[in-house]
Amino acid sequence: MSTHVADTVENAIATPDKEQPYAALGLKPDEYAQIREILGRRPTSGELAMYSVMWSEHCSYKSSKMYLRQFGQKVSEKMKEKLMVGMGENAGVVDVGEGWAVTFKVESHNHPSYIEPFQGAATGVGGIVRDIISMGARPVAIMDQLRFGAIDHPDTARVVNGVVSGISFYGNCLGLPNIGGETYFDSVYQGNPLVNALSVGVLRHEDLHLANASGVGNKIVLFGARTGGDGIGGASILASDSFDAAGPTKRPAVQVGDPFAEKVLIECCLELYRLGLVEGIQDLGAAGISCATSELAANGDGGMIVHLEEVLLRDPTLTAEEILMSESQERMMAVVEPSKLDAFLAVVAKWDVETSVLGEVTDTGRLIIHHFGEEIVNVDPSTVAVDGPVYERPVAYPLWLDALQKDSASTLPRATSGAELREQVIRLVASPNLADKSFITDQYDYFVMGNTALSFPDDAGMIRVDEESGLGFAIATDANGRYCQLDPYAGARLALAEAYRNVAVSGAVPVAVTDCLNFGSPENPEVMWQFKQAVEGLADGCLELEIPVTGGNVSFYNQTGDQPIFPTPVVGVLGIIDDVARRIPSAWQDEGNNIYLLGYTRDELDGSAWAGTIHDHLGGLPPILDLSTEMDLAGLLQGAAIESLVLSAHDLSDGGLAQALAESVMRFGVGARVWLNDIIERDGVDATAALFSESTARVLVSVDREDDVRFVGLCNARNYPVLRIGVTDQRGDDAVLDVQGQFIIPVSEIRERSNETLPKYFG
Questions:
Q1: 552 is in an annotated binding site
Q2: Which parts of the sequence belong to the Phosphoribosylformylglycinamidine synthase linker domain (predicted)?
Q3: How far is the CA of 740 from the CAs of 58, 418, 665, 678, 699, in angstroms?
């Protein structure tokens, strides 16, 4: 047992002038003064620890809250139709029909993943999965959204191999399929990789659980792994701090994960739910017991008393403050009726999950924590968990932005021959951001559980929810930091549109959004301007598309010294499909099908993969976006899926038509003959724009010749632009991509160049 003597409330009253290390805990002088004013005295060291973690940027959203409110304000009646649980809970929940619901959320684990890539990424997966369990759902899939530094930087391999190993280890051990995500490389993320993890769960409507401590006399029970010294202040304080050239200014230990303990915890929780033994539940993530107790109490209807000495410890030397702040993984806190406690304890014993009854719900309106009989915390839980400081940070239009936007890619030299176009296509296919990612994704299990309908490298992941009806959901995530650097309002909307389109091409109907907003320091007025613009763009876009934001995460302080990352709002879109048998894959599988391009191509190369890869250029304005056109396209694709008119559908985004064609011929080794003349004539563009423009609302589809007339009729009836631009050609060793009148590339050469990039640096 620790010999440390805890700082009591009585002691705090008796020693008002005692100096306290609030600055070292990440609190500003005025915040510390505010805590003293709330309490009417100085805080105990335990209270100071709680306020410091719960008022951190990561936990309190103090710099972002005023902007995030738009997601709840810009809402139509249609946006509420399928929404069962929105923002403010552990994860959003959406009604998908037939009595089923899906819960999903994406969160960041950026800073821990730079310090300790394996454990940082592994515990990022573990944390987001526990958010899903806490809603009453069985987790059924994960995804990851990764941003690393320059592919050839000496430190990038350390981070990439550690992060990918951590994700695959934890997810594979849990038996959860990894069904999609993104991996991008850019020197702007060198000291600040982004490791965003998404999890999805499935539940029956009646199994929904929320995080609140209600019912006087109900017991507060901590169960799962023992509490240790790992990750004290980790995600909470670490995520509220930036890295300078010398490394992180605070180096608490990164949490250590045990996926096998979490797998048992999942099954244990699901049995507790099934037997109706839990009134409220909360996972222990950032800020640990501080967070779980204060949030449960604040969301309930009374107060709570907790006896901290009852916490089961891995390390008996931990002080009371360390127990409160520890972010040890694989722990849950439940609210249990006294009459059900024995049954609860029987279930956790059956699963061999360690458990301790810490206290009970009271009617005091206070969160009171004792440690060996001494009162060390006595606070109004709302002041800790809900009513933290809200900052209206200074906002300033970036001084450098006008010059960046004037520097258009339209002045860059373009190919003057078919041979030059061919060479540029190959360079794009082999570039780090467009090259084949199977070196990474092959480390993940896509098909465990047997319900995966679509996965890498399809545009969206898809999971079957109900075996009998075939009901399922699709999910896709997207972000484009280059576009957001040029215009964060437009960039956020473009990320939303791309994820929406990726769900639509799978045959599903987009219905809901989650987001992970990755930005630099909120103390930089230019970063706050970027953040304000991006949130506004996303909220406006969701209102136009009439799909709600169900929740998400904000990650600030992603910068090294004074250099912030590009604004990188990751947007995840969830869609519903009534029968996964009608799913649409992303690439053609047969010879002799007609290839159609849906949508118009404009001369839009600013911020494009072509500009970045061929000319190392970033400048100008992102592509034009019309969300009503995106909705028309989604409706057209849904109609085509219902009538089984398209054999494949692939959205056009990074790398434009050239990349979509390359990915389509590589997937199943079926070549294509394509002509650009009709695009060039109809849309008034040259061959470079026809191949590499990243204009929005465009999809490449393949159609069986027998369905040609019906498909074109469907497009014409919906007044959507459609052009036949080619046919699928022979498969096997002789397969080629023949862009007629310009160049021919063997599919084997495309595949070889695409496949060699990542192994060259990381294998």
A1: yes
A2: 18-62
A3: 54, 10, 16, 12, 20
In the prediction, which pLDDT does 4 show? 60
Q: φ, ψ for residue 351 (rounded to 5)?
A: -90, 5
* Residues of the chain above pLDDT 90, percent: 89
Query: What sign does the CA torsion over 670, 671, 677, 683 have?
Result: positive
Question: Is the separation of the CB atoms in 225 and 90 below 8 Å?
Answer: no
Does 81 carry a binding-site annotation?
A: no
pLDDT given at position 233: 56
303 marked as binding residue: no
State the maximum Cα–Cα separation within the chain, in Å, rounded to a whole number. 88
* 3-state SS, one letter per residue, for 20-78: CCCHHHCCCHHHHHHHHHHHCCCCCHHHHHHHHHHCCHHHHCCCCHHHHCHHHHCCCHH
Task: Judge contact between 564 and 524, C-beta under 8 A.
Answer: yes
487 is annotated as contributing to ligand binding: no
Q: What tokens appear for 164 in the block?
A: 């990918």
| 500 belongs to an annotated ligand binding site | no
Flag residues of the chain having pLDDT under 50.
Answer: 1-2, 234-252
The answer on whether 107 is annotated among ligand-binding residues is yes
Q: Which two tokens stand for residue 398?
A: 């970036």
pLDDT tens figures, 670-720: 999 999 999 999 999 999 999 999 999 999 999 999 999 999 999 999 999
Record the tokens describing residue 443, joined without a space.
């480390």
Find residue 146's DSSP bridge partners.
Answer: 183, 195
Cα separation, 114 vs 162, whole angstroms: 9
CA dihedral sign, ordered 715, 716, 717, 719: positive
Strands 472-478 and 92-97: unpaired
Cα Rg of the chain (Å, integer): 27
Q: How far apart are the C-alpha atoms of 177 and 676, rounded to whole Å?
A: 39
Q: Is 283 annotated as a binding residue?
A: yes
Tell me if residue 109 is catalytic: yes
Neighbours of 88 (CB within 10 A): 12
108 is in an annotated binding site: yes
Distance CA 147, CA 352 (A): 38
**pLDDT tens-digit series, residues 614-659:** 999 999 999 999 999 999 999 999 999 999 999 999 999 999 999 9
The one-letter code for the residue type at 400 is W
- Bridge partner residues of 702 (DSSP): 595, 648
Single out the residue of 513, 615, 564 nearest to residue 70, CA to CA: 513
Catalogue all structural domains in the chain, each as residue range(s) with its CATH number.
9-64+209-385 (3.90.650.10)
Cβ contact 526:393 at 8 Å: no
Q: How far is CA 493 from CA 420, 489, 497, 533, 750, in A?
A: 33, 7, 6, 10, 32
Beta bridge partners of 27: none
Per-residue tokens: 635: 């409706």
Q: Is 255 annotated as a binding residue?
A: yes
**Coil, helix or strand for 144?**
strand
Do 44 and 13 contact (CB within 8 A), yes or no?
no
152 labeled binding residue = no
What are the structure tokens assigned to 476, written together? 């896709």
The enclosing H or E element of 357 equals: strand 355-362
pLDDT digits (tens, 9 = 90+) for 555-609: 999 998 899 999 999 999 999 999 999 999 999 999 999 999 999 999 999 999 9
